[in-house]
Every structure is written in structure tokens, then in C-alpha cells.
């Protein structure tokens, strides 16, 4: 779990780095657009002097922009997944102390691990990062303290629910993190998975937490859902694919109920 903390700090740093890269990239684009506009104006006026200077400026900026995107791509490639059968209840248990220390004493943590939980097929260190990030988001939504509930369940998605959630029919585990915080407006929910979208002050939010979680869970064959109401709180659920290789006898009743309470 110390490893998870270091990972999360690294992610924070990487977030700031990528945020910086996006900013630099935008500046370069502005420079390129400006140079092109100047060239166009000059050409339309028949003044062809200086054109090569503007051209060189645009080319230089384009090359630097390409170098920046290569850096970003190199980073994203390093995030290869290593899915393995994972006991999600045990993973949460192993993270509990770290989560408590991270969110501080004003936030009460409750863990409700379902008995007979299937094992999930996921990259466990990515899942640890995701869980910690969800709890940090929950804490940030509760500046005056509150309660975080981490809950797991077996879920059997039938046709209708699967279609509704853009998932394949089948068996999943849900890992839901609920807080009693500010909640999110429909507007914020709609944008929450976008990289760099944040409502937090500069230096506090990178806007990468949920987008990275979304990327990881979708790549794992799962889905992420946000249920939130302003003034009530937020539930973020990760639906993780079940690992089929469990010992028989761990079957539970199919869960057709769909969304947890929000
Ligand atoms: P960051 O936390 O750096 O802002 P995220 O991608 O994790 O980036 O979250 C994006 C935005 O979604 C946050 O800025 C916040 O507005 C909203 N959000 C995420 N989780 C919660 C939550 N538990 N309660 C309220 N708002 C949330």
C-alpha cells in the first residue's frame, strides 16, 4: 500500500506534467495559427517578403508540438495492463489503512464487502490506484467531513441493463464508492471523464483521475458509472469483469436490480 501511495503521487505528478504538456501544446498551436494567418494576410496583399520567416516559425512550432505528443504517447504506452484474478475485497482491505490516512480523520470510512464475491479479472495495481483516486475525489467533495462507503457486489447484467450501460451481457463485480459530499450537476457528470476536466482550483485538480480510471476500466472490459445528486452525494461504480475460474459453489443470485441507490 506504500507502493500504492507512491503510485498515486506519481500519477499526480504525471497529471501535472501532462497538464503542462497540454498547455504548451496549445501555445504552440496558437503560434502556428498566428503564423499561418499572417502569411495569408501578406499573400492576399501581394507582399511576399518575410513569408519564409513565418513559414519557418510555423514549421518549428509544428516540430515541437509533434515532440510533445510523442512524449505523451510514450507515457500512455507505459500503462500496459496486467489483468489477473483479483480478490477485490482483499484488495480493499489492504488499502483501508492507506485510505484512512489519506482522507484524514474528518471522513468516516465504511467498507461493505459482499460475502461470496467473485474474483475479478483486472490489473490489481491499477485498481488500487483507481480506488485511492475515487476516495480522494470523495474527500475533496466533503470539505467539512462526511462518510465514504466502499461497497462490493456480484452483478449479473441482463440484456436490458447491459444495453443501457454499453456493456456486454454477463457477470461483473461492482466496486462502488459513495460519499456524502457536494454531489455533481448533470453538466459536471457529462464532462467528468474528459481528460483535464476539473472544477478544482489550479494546483489541486489535474482533471485526469476519472479519465484514467475510465480508460483502465473500459480497457479491462468493464464500465464506470456515476450516480450523483447535488447536495446529497455521489456514487461512482466500477463494473469489473468476473474471472471465470472460481471454485464452483460461489454462485449467488443474479442481480437484476441495476443501479445502486445514489
Ligand atoms: P480532479 O479530481 O483532478 O478534478 P477527476 O477527473 O478525478 O479530476 O474529476 C473531475 C471532476 O469531477 C472533479 O473536478 C469534480 O468536479 C468532479 N468529481 C469527481 N468526483 C467527485 C465526487 N466524488 N463528488 C463531487 N464531484 C466529483
From TrEMBL:
<protein>
    <recommendedName>
        <fullName>histidine kinase</fullName>
    </recommendedName>
</protein>
<feature type="domain" description="Histidine kinase">
    <location>
        <begin position="20"/>
        <end position="244"/>
    </location>
</feature>
Amino acid at each position: 500500500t506504500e507502493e500504492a501511495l507512491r503510485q498515486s503521487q506519481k500519477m499526480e505528478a504525471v497529471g501535472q506534467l501532462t497538464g503542462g504538456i497540454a498547455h504548451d501544446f496549445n501555445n504552440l498551436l496558437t503560434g502556428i495559427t498566428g503564423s499561418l494567418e499572417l502569411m495569408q494576410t501578406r499573400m492576399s496583399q501581394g507582399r511576399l517578403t518575410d513569408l519564409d520567416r513565418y513559414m519557418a516559425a510555423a514549421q518549428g512550432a509544428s516540430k515541437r508540438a509533434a515532440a510533445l505528443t510523442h512524449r505523451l504517447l510514450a507515457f500512455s504506452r507505459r500503462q500496459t495492463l496486467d489483468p489477473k484474478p483479483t480478490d477485490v475485497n482483499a484488495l480493499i482491505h489492504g488499502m483501508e489503512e492507506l485510505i484512512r490516512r489519506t482522507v484524514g480523520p474528518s471522513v468516516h470510512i465504511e467498507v461493505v464487502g459482499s460475502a461470496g464475491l467473485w474474483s475479478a479479472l483486472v490489473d490489481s495495481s491499477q485498481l488500487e490506484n483507481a480506488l485511492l483516486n475515487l476516495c480522494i475525489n470523495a474527500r475533496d467533495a466533503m470539505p467539512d467531513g462526511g462518510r465514504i462507503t466502499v461497497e462490493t457486489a456480484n452483478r449479473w447484467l441482463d440484456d436490458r441493463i447491459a444495453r443501457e450501460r454499453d456493456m456486454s451481457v454477463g457477470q461483473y463485480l461492482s466496486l462502488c464508492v459513495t460519499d456524502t459530499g457536494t454531489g455533481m450537476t448533470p453538466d459536471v457528470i457529462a464532462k467528468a471523464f474528459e481528460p483535464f476536466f476539473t472544477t478544482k482550483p489550479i494546483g489541486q485538480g489535474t482533471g485526469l483521475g476519472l479519465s484514467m480510471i475510465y480508460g483502465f476500466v473500459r480497457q479491462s472490459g468493464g464500465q464506470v458509472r456515476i450516480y450523483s445528486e447535488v447536495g446529497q452525494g455521489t456514487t461512482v461504480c466500477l463494473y469489473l469483469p468476473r474471472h471465470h475460474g472460481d471454485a464452483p459453489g460461489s454462485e449467488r443470485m443474479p442481480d437484476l436490480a441495476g443501479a445502486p441507490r445514489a
